[in-house]
Amino acid sequence: MSTSRDHARDLRRGASVVPARVKESARGVLVPVVRLAVALHLTPNTITVIGLLFTVAASALVAGGWLLVGAAVLSAGSLLDAVDGALARAQGGETAFGSFLDSTLDRVSEAILYIGIAAWLFSTLDQPMLPVLAILVALTGSFLVSYARARAEGIGLSASVGLAPRTERLVLIIAGVVLAGLGYTPALIGILFLIAALTIVTVIQRIWHVWRLSQAVAIRSREH
Questions:
Q1: Catalytic residue (one of 81, 84, 102, 106)
Q2: How many domains does the chain have?
Q3: DSSP letter string, 120-174
Q4: Domain carrying residue 101
Q5: How far apart are CA 175 and CA 62, in angstroms?
Q6: Cα dist. 146→3, 37, 122, 143, 223 in Å?
Q7: pTM reported for the whole predicted model
Q8: What percentage of the chain carries pLDDT values higher than 90?
Q9: Catalytic annotation present for 106
Q10: Which CATH number belongs to the domain containing residue 192 in this structure?
Q11: Each residue of 17-32: pLDDT tens digit?
Q12: In sequence order, what are the residues at sequence separation of 6 or more whose Cβ sits closer than 8 angstroms to the Cβ of residue 151?
């Protein structure tokens, strides 16, 4: 019995690029924004859509070469992305449609962002093939990270573990765009390759995690 409990405890541990303590501190910053949204009678779904529009604007700015402005707009959109969940909890909890909409538009936002970066790379670099290939791998990996979690939840298990969930990827990509805007384009390219590698690792982590979790469930079933 103790072995299965220790096994289940291990499964709840999941390291990520951004420590949990930092995430908790960041959530405290959202409190006044959530209060403002409540005062304006905004719904979580409205915030989700506005966040998508911010990302579209940021991607257009990045594609046009306005990298620092685009990074600032993207940061604001990312803040709104965190606000919708906090607002839903403040208003009594997420709805099924709200959760679906948020997850779907997150994928749309990520795709649009990478398209904007790819467009800028094509217009800036003489040989953009490798960086754009990194974008394709990063985007595919990002989708697979989310898909792995969704499929795990579809069979009643949890898979919100790994080095690079969405928040971590956004932090990295914003940092890369800022550095490119300051003239350090190789830093952005390096971050794109890093995200590509981290998403692959995260998918593997989630597959491994779900396998272990399913084994723990099977052990508990046999014990009972």
A1: 106
A2: 1
A3: HHHHH-S--HHHHHHHHHHHHHHHHHHHHHHHHHHTT-----SS--HHHHHHHHH
A4: 2-223
A5: 13
A6: 30, 27, 28, 5, 32
A7: 0.83
A8: 52
A9: yes
A10: 1.20.120.1760
A11: 555 555 555 556 667 7
A12: 159
